[in-house]
Design a protein that fits this description.
Helices cover 53% and strands 3% of the residues. By secondary structure, the protein is mainly alpha-helical. It is globular and about 65 Å long.
């Protein structure tokens, strides 16, 4: 799959329009797919389309692996956050290392592009657990939507309840202690990037409509959690710092906040975020991501690969949420992708259902 196709397939915020008139779809839209994509995928499957069939097979392989995942929880870590409450999410800034000249190594020093293994230690970080949550929940929810096999809904619901709902295992709805720099602070706005999978999981549960595994009470409790978290995101100092970031962090903040607002039905908030993003992030397209794929501010902090695969999808996520026409998206794709990809990008709209069906990992017939 070309990079351009991956970008379009990875978009998580696609339209503010109404949901389809179909009894198969829930009351609110699923924002992980462009309007109509799910029904088109089902129609292709019903017609025996080879690409769709391969995509479904790939999705089911992923879903069956997800069934084996133990529900992650912030309570699994051994280190206790500064608050003294393990329900609080915590992580260590990945590009900061102990100072060898100091007895306790603090304050930590920055090493651009070099990940400190300490930041990936599950005993002290919730980072990898958070990543797992969104991917696994979405995969299982999509598997249930296409097959109606209850085992997928049951496990998806269990993952969400464990992280967001159950009093013994739930995360407190804030990100105050994310990406802390030992000896400098207890957490930073940059850590909010690690929470972007939460809205993906919250969005995906709408695909469980009709399953006895997900109740109205479950949904109401999740919505209450989400509203508290979104309010924190919009009003906290850490949230303000991340919103003001001029690299991929700022763009992903827009995606995350708008995604939560849409999922929670706060469309006035989503519209405000998206409208502002359409103007304040536009320079990232024209100036910070030239045709070679370099994002200069992110290059300073992380490997180019991360910038390419994180900044660009975020831009497309926000761009799609503004209801930009597909023709306009194609033009912008051509402007940010290298010339070698431009011809292949033409006609990519025809691949949308298959791309989505495999969650952005389409199996090419060739």
């Amino acid at each position: 799959m070309t990079l351009c196709r991956i970008l379009l397939a990875l978009s998580v915020l696609l339209h503010l329009g109404p949901c389809l008139n179909s009894a198969a779809l829930p009351a609110r839209p699923y924002y992980g797919a462009r309007p109509g994509a799910l029904e088109k995928s089902k129609a292709l499957l019903a017609s025996g389309d080879e690409s769709a069939t391969k995509a479904l097979k790939k999705l089911m392989e992923q879903a069956n692996k997800a069934l084996l995942i133990m529900p992650p929880s912030v309570m699994e870590k051994k280190k206790v956050p500064p608050s003294g409450d393990k329900h609080d999410y915590m992580s260590i800034a990945p590009y900061f290392w102990p100072d060898p000249a100091k007895p306790n190594g603090q304050p930590y020093l920055r090493k651009d592009g070099k990940v400190n293994p300490e930041s990936r230690d599950p005993d002290a970080n919730d980072t990898l657990r958070a990543r797992l949550l969104g991917d696994a929940t979405e995969t299982l929810a999509l598997a249930y939507f296409f097959t109606k096999e209850e085992k997928y809904a049951t496990h998806a619901a269990k993952l969400v309840r464990t992280w967001f709902l159950d009093p013994a295992t739930r995360m407190t709805p804030h990100f105050r202690f994310a990406q802390a720099v030992p000896g400098v602070n207890d957490g930073r706005g940059t850590g909010i990037l690690e929470a972007r999978s939460f809205a993906v999981a919250a969005d995906a549960v709408v695909l469980l409509a009709g399953s006895p595994s997900w109740s109205v009470d479950d949904q109401n409790t999740l919505d209450a959690w989400g509203n508290t978290y979104l309010d924190w995101l919009l009003t906290s100092k850490n949230g303000a710092d991340e919103c003001a970031a001029k690299n991929n962090h700022g763009t992903w903040y827009d995606v995350q906040a708008a995604h939560w607002a849409l999922v929670l039905g706060r469309k006035d908030v989503a519209k405000k975020i998206i409208t502002l993003a359409a103007t304040k992030r536009v320079s990232l397209i024209s100036a910070k991501i030239p045709s070679l794929g370099l994002c200069h501010r992110s290059m300073k902090a992380s490997p180019m690969r991360f910038c390419r695969h994180s900044g660009r999808p975020a831009l497309f996520s926000v761009m799609n949420a503004t209801r930009t026409s597909y023709a306009s998206i194609r033009i912008i794709v051509a402007s940010v992708c290298s010339s070698s990809h431009r011809d292949e990008e033409l006609g990519v709209s025809d691949l949308a259902p298959q791309c989505h069906l495999a969650r952005g990992r389409r199996v090419s017939p060739s």
